[in-house]
From TrEMBL, chain A:
It comes from the Eukaryota. It comes from Manihot esculenta (Cassava). This is Uncharacterized protein.
Automatic annotation (TrEMBL), chain B:
Pfam families: HTH_9, RNA_pol_Rpc82, WHD_POLR3C. GO terms for biological process: DNA-templated transcription. DNA-dependent RNA polymerase catalyzes the transcription of DNA into RNA using the four ribonucleoside triphosphates as substrates. Specific core component of RNA polymerase III which synthesizes small RNAs, such as 5S rRNA and tRNAs. It is found in: Nucleus. Residues 154-374 form the RNA polymerase III Rpc82 C -terminal domain. One of its GO terms (cellular component) is RNA polymerase III complex. Residues 231-250 have a biased composition (Basic and acidic residues). GO terms for molecular function: single-stranded DNA binding. Component of the RNA polymerase III (Pol III) complex consisting of 17 subunits. Residues 10-68 form the RNA polymerase III subunit RPC82-related helix-turn-helix domain. Residues 380-440 form the DNA-directed RNA polymerase III subunit RPC3 winged-helix domain. This is DNA-directed RNA polymerase III subunit RPC3.
Amino acid sequence: MTWTLGMSRLLGQKRKQTDSKSPAESLTEQERILYNVIRNKQDMGIWTRDMKRETSLPDNVVNKSLKVLQAKNLIKEVVNIQNKGRKHYMATEFEPSKEITGGTWYVEGNLDTEFIQILKEQCTKQIYKLKVATLEGITDSIKRSGVLNVELTKQQIDEIVKALVLDNEIIELKSNGMGEFASIPVGKICYKCISKGSGGGEPKIGAMASIPCGVCPRIHQCTPDGIISPQTCVYYNKWLDF
Amino acid sequence: MVKTQYGIKYAVHLITNHFGNLVAKVCECLLRKGPLTLHNIVRYTELTQMQVKNSLLVLIQHNCVQAFRLADTGGSQSAPKQITQYIALFDNILHRMRFSKFLAIISQEFDTLCVGIVEGLLQHGRLTLRQIVERANSSQKEGNSVGMGAVQENLRKLVMARYVEHCPTAEPFLESPTEDDAPARKRGAKSSKMVIEPETLEQRVMEAARPMEAKRFSLEMDTELNEDGEKDQNKSPDKHVGDKRKRDASDPNVDSDTTEDQVVLWHANFEEFIRRLRHKACIENVRARMDDGAAIVLSAMLEASKTEEKKVRTASSVPLSVNSIYEEVIKSEKGRNMTFDHVRSALVQLSSPPPFVTVIDESYSIDFKHIIEVAQSEEVESIVLKRFGRDAYRMFRLLSKAGRLLETDKISDKIFVEKKETTKILYKLWQDDYLLMEKLVVGTATFLLWKVNKHVLWEHVLDEMFHAALNLSLRVAYELEQQKEIVNLPTDRREGPMKEKYEKLKKMRVLMESSQMKLDDAIMLFHDF
Ligand code: SF4
């Protein structure tokens, strides 16, 4: 069975830890210099080009030493989100920093879209259940539901909720303490699902967006007597093809 | 909002369709160059004086051009001469697309005789009472003549409701020299960061031409009917313009209004129609976002406060108490079964933030500006979604909510899209003028910052809307031309494949024409509301 990243995270599975008891004693002088440079960089790691500059070791020596250090499990290659093409190394005992990984939402340099999607669905579900919910309410509710095995911080939930607002799945409101807001202090930010009756979730398709010209990539080139014109327009042909 | 490049093209297209090439040429010249004297129109269009004059008459008759007098201070120190200029009324030209909407409003509120009167006014631009009566009778079956009294009675109703008004003064005098004035205004606006949109020349001319409030909706019917048609002829705009010009040359002090008082010319008050349509748009927006109850309460509030509204683009309505709102709600058929509590809770809903209705001291007032802005944003966002995809939609919403510059990485983090992909999409939006971009260089690193500039973008979107409306109209004409045979096919020959083709054409027309109406709603949302 293959586990996708998102699923393994959800089940709280720890990622494989490498065995790091191998001794650093048997290193050559050059290997030791290189190892120290890498280790000193801690959770930031270092790019091969920078190693060469800092150690002043010749290219072939660096490349060979890297292989040795890796074989001994003293260093590991990591993906640097800032520049995926560059070879980047880090001492095994460190976990890459946020700057390197891209933060909580990244796994091995890739955005964990599946995990994010599941979280989005869970948050929407909870907000829908609560009708009007504050950030604390959503975090609590998710925790209590027990659907997720991972601990999520309020900060993380906040990021997800903000994204849902941009998706137009939910709206952000300020409580005025009346009606459905009665249990929420006045002025407190809260969230609500977009009512499904009005085609909620799916944004209304406006007048422009429902005709060919409104979404046409060629509109700037289109003129009444030009090569691209309303009379000869293929988008219209398609639109009017009953 | 301003008239954009495609706005002008679209307006000229409408005039061409309705009045032909010659008139359109004069109209285009005025739209592009601004107000001009007769002499200059002749010069620019290279038409004969007669052709230009006749075109102007048509345009004035249909409320698409207004004449005005200006003090000519140029040159000598001698007493300033007055010169007559003509200005195209861009908004009124666009209103020609909306006549069916105007008539729909009338038929909802009044009976058929009123509809007939307004229809006549829209069709002919301006009419005297006599002409209105004649028209009413010509459409009746023989023996069923409509009396003078009945017409007067109905006209009175329409005037009371402000749907019909006296025509503007033929050639009002405009105080300050506008040409030198305009740039100065602009400069002032920039330095002092004026929030109020500077009045356009078009607005100033219309302001000057508008009869005093009391006279504008004066119900005093003129006496022309008691006399012969002579006076009528005097009134015919043809003679009118010619006369006026002669008089101006010889004696600039003649008050051109005096002759006019005797016979009243009526026309439709577009402003009132647009105000009505604006109200309707607000109600529909609230209905879509909330429910029928909220919509009923809002329309009651509109009804109760409408007499206080002075201009079309009112930002907010006068404050109303719960009691007065409730009173108005139960006046309407749909509101009759609403309880006081129901009205109260609808008001709570309407005023919950972000509020469509603001509450101050237990008084409620409609925040038109906010409702309109929400609707405008929604329209633009839906274009972004369809044209650039869902991720672009998210980025656009983020930036337009932020209202300031944001850096690529930050955007990518917030919407959960990989950085490379984010940059690509932002770049595309920027290329199509939906975003502004700024480069920030810090040391060796370059950061890209992005922003939505609503003011600029809304104008751009409006221009694209005009472009789309023009294209749609051209395509409708093209399809009808292509399928002339089928259109003209007599009913009894619509069989087999012909019938199929006919049905297909019908569907096409329904789709295109309803799209035209909806697109025009969107144009109003950005241009008129
Ligand atoms: S007519 Fe066709 S090509 Fe021209 S803008 Fe419209 S959809 Fe695009």
